[in-house]
Amino acid sequence: MAKKFAELEARMAPEARAQAQALYLQHLKELPLHELRKAQELSQEALAKKLHINQAAVSKMERRTDMYISTLRNYIQAMGGELEIIATFADGQVKIENFAE
Amino acid sequence: MAKKFAELEARMAPEARAQAQALYLQHLKELPLHELRKAQELSQEALAKKLHINQAAVSKMERRTDMYISTLRNYIQAMGGELEIIATFADGQVKIENFAE
Q1: Which of A38, B56, B76, B84 makes the best surface tag, with the fewest CB within 10 Å?
Q2: Which InterPro entries does the UniProt entry name for this protein (chains A, B) (predicted)?
Q3: Could you confirm whether domain A31-101 is CATH 1.10.260.40?
């Protein structure tokens, strides 16, 4: 099935592909960090243990509206995920690679 | 064309959709910030002007391997783009909405 998707994408004109990509990102579920943690069935205590910090620090982190990219990456990785930084333009998306580990 | 993509996606089983999504993100072009700026045909001077900082500050920013999400968002927006923060898990992706403007 993944192969079919790649084939379909390869047959699309660049503008259509950019449209499809934008559409895909628009349709992604949006969650705040604490909801994402709950979806992974992790408590603040469990996540704090993985991050070697205390529960209050996790609580504080989840209420922030700005933080270092490395801090966010550590939080996501502690849940078993990977962080991706995407820049969306009218003609498509690119991944920003400055912050790769 | 965008409609066709949405229809195809809707017909896919959840696991296949997660696979297709992961595949899509894997296939995105990866660029460091300075290459992205050049692709937008902007000089450090031009971007500095938009950000109300000097050229040296832009140069320094482009060499950083960590920064605040708000700083990165300002840089991307000055180029005419939008920043998206995605967490990728084995079973799919979610957008992190804590840092929405």
Answers
A1: B56
A2: Cro/C1-type_HTH, HigA2-like_HTH, Lambda_DNA-bd_dom_sf
A3: yes
